[in-house]
Design a protein that fits this description.
seven-stranded parallel sheet, alpha/beta, elongated
Length: 634
């Protein structure tokens, strides 16, 4: 079956998007490849098609459990055998999944990066016929990336176990430094990059300055049509803003990671189906959701880095039609960002204190806890130990970077079971334990493949079907588990912390303070870059983003708020930029009166120079001090 046939049969597409086929052919030729495709650019197709085209299993490394679960579900709906291993799964469950990938004709195995260092995973990978190693969110391997994860460094360690399988690294966002770092750390024999432009020509980037952000948000949705997302940092504010929009005639709902999974899933499905127009959410919403007709993505709180903003804004306009990415900004955002940098980034001593508090929370003795995983309620933890949630969040990142723990996002895992006993042993048990015979028969009749793999169950539905209480059903499941008849994992939906090393005593806990300072410096750089985007009043918004990602050969978009103002001036892009740069060059060294400035630019018409001067003054790039113009901008 050729590549187009695979694409048509499993995805229903008649042709590939730009660069997809080039990337696929590259890895099929055995070449290590880095692919940069924008959000919504079809990254998963780039490893799923070659994974199907070749014999063996495609191993996919991803840090996002929710996305892994979604990908496995989508592949299974298409009749493709896929499985995942991540934090929160029991050892028996992991063992069975890995065996199935060796002996069960599976095509895709998704692994969270913290599992790569475990002996069980490495031993099984060596036995697998791996046809491709795909590394999603590959920027996580770089210490200069905005979401560095040290567990990604173990990817290079497992490459010798894969018998020469090529590697495909994928990301939507990477600066020039990060692109180089990714390839070096993943042991590419030579640099090999495919990169689509970061430019999204159908998105108009806009910054609106407003003291009353709620009213400005209402105005945005009154003036535009179609579906939207509003991002804020606070869980509490998601509900407040959604209720405000509803009171003012805009259908809306809210979403955040503190809600139970059933509610989150229901709200997400209703929004996707168009039951309401606007989802007000924290950044827990949107990853892996492909709704093509989002017309507006509005941020009422400024993200901490340009990469996150670009990804979240990029959820608008995936159908190619005109859409808007709006950042509502005021001076309090700058003050808050500076405060977070000063007060929310923990010292080494505070990180040690938080590490000890985590150990106490789970009642771990010194020297215990290796590879143990625990549900983690951040808000409850902070209340118990009187800690600042933002500071704890940064401390968790630092502890991850030091290789002490792995922290994963909240993800819903339904209850699930698998029969461990052979059919002969099960029959014997049913004869000897007649009280369980009917219950066992119901499980076998209702859930397929229970002897091959774990199957999700709902204890309440089983209770209704068998005329028992939920507690009675759970008691029977626990008994069958203790008798060795089944493996049973109860549902969970909390974030999790896994100890990658046994709990260390405080006196011997050696943190790399230099690395902590580097992380703080990177955090400061990221905040300043985002503040620069928000405060920028002269450079096309699209060009600002493209320049940030190293794509310097670009032109102004013509549709952002900056460009729309320039369009009204009657100057070409080249004229405006040339005059502006010459004015900056003249005024940066000395002040000049307006007449002298015009005379110093004889090759431009006076009215055009005056137009640019007025525009620069309106945007606080030049000022008039005692009759002389001086440059005060960036």
């Amino acid at each position: 079956m050729n590549l187009q046939q695979i694409l048509q049969q499993y995805w229903g597409y008649s042709s590939f998007r730009p660069l997809q086929e080039d990337i696929i052919c590259s890895v099929l030729n055995g070449e290590d490849t880095l692919a940069l495709l924008p959000t919504g650019g079809g990254k998963s197709i780039c490893y799923q098609v070659p994974g199907l085209a070749k014999e063996g299993v495609c191993v996919v490394i991803s840090p996002l459990i929710a996305l892994m679960k979604d990908q496995v579900g989508q592949l299974r709906k298409r009749g493709i055998k896929a499985a995942a291993v991540f934090s929160g799964m029991g050892k028996t469950e992991i063992d069975i999944v890995l065996d199935n990938c060796i002996y069960g004709n599976y095509k895709f195995l998704y692994l969270s990066p913290e599992r790569l260092g475990t002996e069980i995973v490495q031993a099984r990978l060596e036995k697998m016929n791996v046809n491709l190693l795909a590394v999603d969110e590959a920027h996580c391997i770089s210490q200069w990336g905005y979401d560095f994860r040290p567990s990604y460094l173990k990817i290079a360690e497992i490459r010798p176990l894969l018998h020469g399988a090529p590697l495909l690294a994928l990301t939507a966002t990477a600066t020039a430094t990060v692109k180089k770092d990714i390839q070096e750390r993943l042991l590419f024999p030579q640099e090999h990059l495919f990169q689509a432009s970061f430019e999204r020509k159908n998105i108009s980037y806009v910054v609106r300055t407003a003291e009353d952000k709620l009213n400005k948000t209402l105005t945005i949705f009154k003036k535009t049509k179609g579906t939207g997302i509003v991002y804020v940092r606070s869980r509490r504010r998601t509900q407040e803003i959604a209720e405000y929009l509803i009171r003012n005639g805009i259908s809306a709902d809210f979403y955040h990671a503190g809600m139970d999974m059933e509610s989150r899933s229901t709200k997400q499905d209703q929004w996707l189906a168009g039951r309401f127009r606007v989802m007000v959410a924290t950044n827990a919403f949107g990853m892996g959701i492909d709704k093509p007709d989002v017309r507006v993505v509005a941020h009422l709180d400024m993200p901490e880095n340009v990469e996150a903003y670009y990804q979240e804004a990029g959820r608008a306009g995936r159908d190619g039609n005109r859409s808007y990415a709006v950042l509502v900004y005021n001076v309090s955002d700058k003050l808050e960002a500076e405060y977070r940098l000063e007060h929310h980034f923990p010292s080494a001593q505070e990180v040690v204190h938080i590490y000890n508090a985590i150990g106490n929370q789970f009642q771990l003795a010194i020297g215990s806890g290796l590879e143990e995983s625990f549900s983690f309620d951040l808000n409850g933890f902070c209340k118990t130990f009187k800690l600042e949630p933002s500071k704890v969040g940064h401390a968790l990142k630092i502890l991850e970077n030091q290789g002490l723990i792995a922290a994963t996002e909240a993800v819903y895992l339904p209850s699930r079971i698998k029969f461990l006993a052979s059919k002969e042993d099960l029959y014997r048990f049913q004869v000897e334990q007649a009280a369980y015979d009917t219950f066992v028969k119901y499980l076998l009749r209702s859930f397929g493949g229970l002897f091959d793999e774990f199957s999700p169950i709902n204890e309440l539905e089983i209770a209704k079907a068998t005329n028992q209480s939920r507690e009675e059903v759970m008691k029977k499941l626990r008994y069958l588990k203790s008798a060795g008849i089944i493996a049973y994992e109860a549902k969970s939906h909390q974030p999790r912390i896994t100890f990658l090393q046994a709990r260390a005593p405080e006196r011997s806990l050696q943190l790399n303070k230099t690395h902590i300072e580097q992380r703080k410096a990177l955090y400061e750089h990221n905040i300043k870059s985002m503040l620069g985007y928000a405060a920028n009043k002269t450079l096309c918004r699209s060009r600002y983003l493209l320049n940030y990602f190293g794509e310097t050969d670009n032109h102004r978009c013509g549709s952002c708020d900056i460009c729309l103002e320039l369009n009204k001036m009657g100057l070409s892009e080249l004229e405006h930029e040339t005059i502006q740069q010459e004015i900056k060059s003249l005024l940066a060294s000395q002040g000049m009166d307006i007449r002298s400035l015009v005379q110093a630019l004889p090759r431009f018409k006076e009215d055009k120079v005056l137009t640019v001067v007025r525009w620069l003054m309106e945007h606080n790039q030049i000022a008039n001090q005692e009759g002389k113009l001086i440059w005060i901008g960036q």
